[in-house]
Design goal:
elongated
């Protein structure tokens, strides 16, 4: 099912081009965003801002003029991808078959996670400087909850499934990523197949209580006691 553009305007991430910005400034910003997307896809969002500036062929001062914080650069680099995710979810909500819609969403997101090493950190982290990104992600979470409930109501999804189980899937999917793209893709597909089979209605014993997880909790530092 091809993704259509989101009905909402894509999030205007911090660092967006200002009206009347000079052509050379717009060009530098575009180069920085392209360099950031390429670096994050290969190595994740731990890539330093200095490395991204060098990759783009500009100085650090130019980068910070456009993106004063690391979060603003990450949010801007991935705003288009976030719009694609929300568009897939919007289309799934319009599908007459909610189970098919849910499968499509999970397949699309899992595939994005495998193909782009920066995907998880970009969409599962908090962005203090990007309220539009947070708002769009919250809208996606609400839509996912509606899709899950529809699949339950039609008897296609086990009753004890919880939207937070999608977070568990993404955590597990992150764990199967390998250096080889082919190996990562094969492992992710098999994991997703297992997950989807376990989601089907069953007369077996109920699952343990859902874990108190939200998408933006995944990349917080782990809580330690003692």
């Amino acid at each position: 099912m091809p993704a259509r553009p989101s009905r909402n305007t894509p999030p205007a991430a911090s660092g967006a081009s200002a009206p009347g910005q000079r052509a050379d400034a717009r060009h530098n910003r575009a180069r920085l965003l392209q360099a950031a997307r390429e670096a994050y896809a290969l190595d994740g969002t731990d890539v330093s801002s200095g490395a991204i500036a060098r990759r783009a062929g500009v100085g650090a001062a130019t980068l910070y003029r456009h993106f004063p914080t690391r979060d603003s650069l990450i949010a801007a680099a991935f705003s288009e991808r976030l719009g694609q995710c929300v568009a897939v979810l919007d289309e799934a909500l319009q599908d007459d078959d909610p189970w098919r819609g849910l499968r499509t969403v999970l397949t699309t997101v899992s595939t994005m996670q495998v193909r782009d090493r920066g995907f998880s950190a970009a969409f599962l982290s908090r962005f203090p400087d990007a309220p539009d990104v947070r708002r769009e992600r919250a809208r996606a979470e609400a839509g996912l909850a509606r899709l899950v409930q529809r699949a339950k109501d039609t008897g296609q999804l086990r009753k004890d499934f919880d939207p937070s189980d999608v977070t568990l899937l993404l955590l597990a999917n992150e764990g199967v990523l390998r250096e080889s793209p082919a190996a990562s893709t094969a492992a992710s597909r098999r994991l997703l197949a297992y997950f989807l089979q376990s989601c089907l209605p069953t007369d077996g014993p109920p699952l343990p209580r859902p874990a108190p997880l939200r998408l933006d909790d995944l990349y917080r530092p782990p809580h330690r006691t003692g």
